[in-house]
Amino acid sequence: MNVLRDEGYETVRERIMKLLLDNKGEFFTAYQIIALLGLDLKPRDIYRHLEHIAKTIRRRSGGRLVLVMKPPICLNCGYVFKDLDKPRKPSKCPRCHSQRISDPEFAIIEK
Fold first, then answer.
1. pTM confidence score
2. Which of 32, 44, 77, 79 could form a disulfide with 96 if both were Cys (CB 3.0 to 4.6 A apart)?
3. Which of 74, 61, 62, 59 lies closest to 104 in space, CA to CA?
4. What is the DSSP letter of 95?
5. DSSP 8-state class, residue 75
6. Domain ranges in the chain?
7. Which residue in 89, 60, 85 sits closest to 72, CA to CA?
8. CA–CA distance, 6 with 65 (Å, rounded to integer)
9. In the chain, which ranges are E strands?
10. 110 pairs with which residues across the strands?
11. Are 30 and 46 in contact (CB under 8 A)?
């Protein structure tokens, strides 16, 4: 299905990218992105969009801008999930098995 977009209409990814670019260096959780943009999505959907946005930002800026993630932290024992390969919120801590995990936060910064 090929749908032409009217001017002024942006895709969800474009809206997320614009939010992060306009607030360069400021970190947002998936829930904050959903609330600020008034989206009807789940955090896992935002994480999928962020994977693609990371590639787009890097390509469009020639590597000058990058999407970074503050990793989630276990609120029980302080374990930092620094080895995540994709943006997501883990379900439980590998050290203490607590489910009290902070949300990852995302920002676009200059390299």
1. 0.87
2. 77
3. 74
4. T
5. T
6. 12-110
7. 89
8. 28
9. 65-70, 105-110
10. 65
11. yes
